[in-house]
Amino acid sequence: MTAYVIVDIEVTDPVGYEDYKNLAAPTVALYGGKYIARGGKTETLEGGWVPNRLVILQFESSERAKAWLNSPEYAGARALRHKYANSKMVVVEGV
Length: 95
Known about the structure:
Helix content: 40-55%
CATH architecture: 2-Layer Sandwich
């Protein structure tokens, strides 16, 4: 079942974060994922959620999304994300 990784990212070092973006993108593709949204304009429609930078990734399954997240290929980029940003991440299965 298709799964979506949704990440709310507060970038704390924009220059360093560019390095993360350059390293992360090829690993997403390597695991069969694709970007659905990547830091575009957001608008709160209801509630008090004010996201920072939203990224939405699509994978063939939750298992594949978790394999990407925990992969050796993504490890270096993940470390940079933790260094240059604060993030919240969930995976949700599609219909």
